[in-house]
Amino acid sequence: MPMPKVVLVTGASSGFGRCIARTLAARGHHVYGTSRAPAGDDGAVRVLPLDVASDDSTRSCVEALLAAEGRIDVLVNNAGVGLCGSVEDTGLDEVRWQMETNFFGAVRMIRAVLPQMRAQRAGRLIAIGSLGGLVGMPYQPFYSASKFALEGLNEALRLELAGSGIDATSITPGDFKTGFTAARVFARESRSPAHRERMERVVSIYERDERNGADPQRVADLVAKLVAAPRVGVRYSVGRWDQRAAVFAKRLLPAALFERVLASTYSIR
Description:
Layout: E1 6-9, H1 15-26, E2 30-35, E3 46-49, H2 55-69, E4 74-77, E5 83-84, H3 92-120, E6 123-128, H4 141-160, E7 166-173, H5 180-183, E8 185-186, H6 196-211, H7 217-228, E9 235-238, H8 241-252, H9 255-265
Parallel strand pairs: 1-2, 1-4, 2-3, 4-6, 5-8, 6-7, 7-9
């Protein structure tokens, strides 16, 4: 059996994060999950308080883990939020909130664990992205922007870490049955007359696909596979075959044609 790894999973109170943390713990790893308001440990998963938007909270979380374990082998950057609303109607403070959690939160965590990983000359960084970080999603533009940013960060980071013993990868899920649908946040002015009817139609399609999405255990199993793998690739997609095929089609089709396909998919007229 491979040696157990010390793993930190952010956003482990629900959804992908909880499923990932429990799956890794069941496979014998020393797993630490995080939550902004932890209610105690979750079985074999030790839960630490963490607000990824806070430098102090990030530092305290990593220090607590290192005090207990003396090392960290894997960081799973999973914490995230979903903001819905048009570019036109979303306030800049709301945009900053979205980016602060999904992107800058991941950056904080990476910067917090890298010194220890460099001292070990070993470590793995796994980012939970989204197919929405490879295809721009109407009425979720800043969610898409945050996930696009994670993909660019991962690509650059892999090159910067070459030869260090540390590697990085991202996972880009499609629609899954998680708490994301219920937790979706709408911009304050998201139902302005210019966008109300179209946005409601598009979001209803998102919610239908999410309710009928795949089992999040598939993402957790993929993470477990990557934790154990001797090396990892740039990114891995997981989810419904048609959604994954759309990303492949984007590479092959002329941009204007792919845009028409996407508009048809979401009933944008």
